[in-house]
Amino acid sequence: MGNNRNKDMQRTELLVQVARLYYEHDLSQNEIAKKINLSRPYISKLLHEAKQAGIVKINIEDPVMSENWLERKLRVYYGLNKVIVVPKVEDINPLQQVGEAAARYMNSILKNGDVIGFSWGETIYECAKALPKRDDLKDMIAVQMCGGVSNIKRNVYVSEITKAFSAMLNSAGYVLPFPAIVDDKKIKEAIDKEHTMTDVLRYAQRVNIAIVTMGKFGEQCALARAGYLRPDEISKLRLRGAVGDICTHVIDSNGDICDPDLDVRTVAVPYEQIKRIDTRIGVAVGESKVESILGALKGNVVNVFVTNENTVDAIREAKPEIFE
């Protein structure tokens, strides 16, 4: 009995010794083998045994997948897959911060053959720029999912975003060279028949990762500043409950299409098709986006949400029950 106990203790001491040399002193298995006069394969066996015995416990802290209480409350309340809330950092552009956080998350889930769909916006531009170069990925495609805008800052141009995604992902890129909204349903029907549009829609059916902004609504929203929505149209849409846009589809507080007549003139991947994409990353920054954010989350338009603490503070003011 005593001999067996002594043998067990000696075995445990050997396991601890080998584990310390390997994990704490960074010696290679060959170096350990020479040091204690055992073979390298036997050292490998001892390290495996140390894990099995619970002597070695490996804890990996993944900053992308870790979660604080704000993120958890939002995720659980809306049934999301992931929420990322970027901490407050002075003197750094919050759009850049959130874009970089979205890029880190996207980079963590990318795999060969992914088809990436995107809308436009400064935060998405920052995301596209922040993605690391991924020459290891193959058969990637980047697809613009909505028409573009003009008369706005250069870095919301979809062509720039498409180029950035294509360069970082070593992928083909498909641009939608049409306005976001047209004046007449017949014009939209004609665009739908254009080969450029049919190509985009064909690839859009294969999109498995989308990143979109939750745009604010009103006289200063991007669609209004680009001249796509007149002041009288904005007033009418407000009366119908418009709170923002997702991929240029104007939505209400339930995340539903606000005005079907406007939506049939909207040049974009169909709204219901966007909602069927596997991973739908929504990015938004600022108090002015809160209504749009809440509508998109309620309507399950996105299942991954990336924002910053200031925006979450505004969400808490608007809907405190989320965080109870």
Task: Describe the model.
This protein has 324 residues and is an alpha/beta fold. It has two domains: 2-52, Winged helix-like DNA-binding domain superfamily/Winged helix DNA-binding domain (Arc Repressor Mutant, subunit A, Orthogonal Bundle), CATH 1.10.10.10; 69-323, Rossmann fold, CATH 3.40.50.1360. 46% of the residues lie in helices and 13% in strands. The chain starts with a helix and ends in a 6-residue tail after the last helix. The model has no long low-confidence stretch (mean pLDDT 89).
Overall geometric form: elongated
CATH C-level class of the largest domain: Alpha Beta
Topology as a string of helices (H) and strands (E):
HHHHEHEHEHEHHEHHEEHHEHEH
CATH architecture annotation name of the largest domain:
3-Layer(aba) Sandwich
Strand count: 9
Residues in helix, % = 40-55%
Look at the helices and sheets and give the structural class: alpha/beta
Q: What characterizes the major β-sheet?
A: 9 strands, mixed
- Please give the alpha-carbon distance between the first and last residues: 58 Å
Low-pLDDT windows of residues: none
Summarize the structure.
By secondary structure, this protein is α/β, with parallel strands linked by helices. The chain has helices at 2-24, 29-36, 40-52, 69-78, 94-109, 122-130, 158-169, 185-193, 195-204, 222-225, 231-239, 260-263, 271-274, 290-298, 309-318, and strands at 82-86, 115-118, 141-144, 172-174, 209-216, 242-246, 249-252, 279-283, 304-308. Strand 6 and strand 7 form a beta hairpin.
